[in-house]
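Onboarding guide, step 5: your first structure request.
Type a short instruction followed by the sequence, for example:

Predict the 3D structure of this protein.
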Amino acid sequence: MNLNQILISIIILLILGIIGISILMFIITRRKGGQLTRSLNMSLFLITLPKKIKKGEGEVSKSQKEIISVMEQFYSSLSNIKETKDVFFYGQPHIVFEIATPQIGEEIAFYMSVPRKYEAVIEKQIHGFYSDASVEKVDDYNIFNPKGAVAGSYLRLAKTHSLPFKTYQNLEIDPLNEITNTLSKLQQEGEGASIQITIKPTLSRSWAQHGLKIAKEMQKGKDYELARVKADKGIIMRNVEFIFETISGSSKKQESKENMDSLQIAKTITPLQEEIIKSIEGKASKPGFQTNIRLLVSSSNQKRADQLLEHLESAFVQFNEPNLNQIKSMRLRGFKLKKLIYDFSFRLFNKKHSTILNTEELTSLFYFSTITHERDKSVVKQEISTRYQANSL
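The system replies with structure tokens like these:
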């Protein structure tokens, strides 16, 4: 190969490289634009419940957990919101839930943002589960102090999504109390905060199947970490393991040993392992959602904003279950904080910060407030005024 042929080959490779990079940049730009377009075609609703819930004649009063569980049924009804057209550029539709206090005013409000094409359907679903609810389409609100500082973080699971955290079913108190107590401490003017939960249904049950594989391995006597490693093995690794066992002749011996010791293995499962197995199977049995959880606080100065954010983050400690899973916060600064504010303001779904929660876990973090809520005065009721709503940052 002479010099001219080498130069031609290099030029061709450079041209192909430039074309490849250009196509990639085009796809990335189109997808970002598509996601933003989807976000701009969403409507914001203020959801409020009456101060007193009417009971039917002879109807028995429901417990707090029974009332909260209605939201779990509502989440389940959203698990079928999926599309097949133009999803490569626009992505799957997502829904946003928010508990917020604007930077002017004391009220704590519950919002829901949905794609416009699903407005009527979702409004009917809300009234189907909460017949007395007020669903009011509103302009956006503003939590940001224009002359102040902002602090923000996102929340995610500390361990794999196969393990659930402590949910409302295992809590003795209303899980929203801690959150609304923190929000109620904000000053009437110049301070605002929001908890934003963005969800989209998982496209497959692979996350649940993975959890069930872990549970199956644990039923053989393995601890969680070893069972997880075993479940994580791909097809290639399993085939390599099979070939190795076949060559070494250890496969039949191992199988025979497992059959002989099956009863003994079952007896070695500890109560803690049984609890973990039950919890994993319980999480896998319910619909799952890819979830972003964002916390944002604004105040007159950075020290106060950081302090309020710390208090808000601590409100989620109640969901931590040492033997299962915990919710951890990732505090952001600089450019990453600006990106968080951008995602929050446009209500974008960020795959990088996503985790998988099932309907029971989501219900523990957000449900529409009812009369059972202790901090009645802080929660927006039917007579709420929307005069403080403003355009988002």
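Each response can be followed by summary notes, for example: Residues 34 and 90 are 4 Å apart (CA to CA).
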